[in-house]
Amino acid sequence: MSEAISPAACAALFTEARTHNGWLDRPVSDEQLREIYALLKMGPTSANCSPARFVFIRTPEGKEKLRPA
């Protein structure tokens, strides 16, 4: 990398970022899921030794399968 990150970019990443806690009651398209996964799969895991696993669930039946017994 030959360019320094801007102060605004640093702030967006480290001091202004917040966890999203609101959801809209509408489906996410297949294309959006593909784009999201393309970003997620590049993220680090714990000491890079715990592979991340993602499950995309769309149906109430699928959600029920995740519910604890």
UniProtKB/TrEMBL annotation:
GO molecular function: oxidoreductase activity
Superkingdom of origin organism: Bacteria
InterPro entries: Nitroreductase-like
Protein name as catalogued: Nitroreductase family protein
Organism: Klebsiella michiganensis
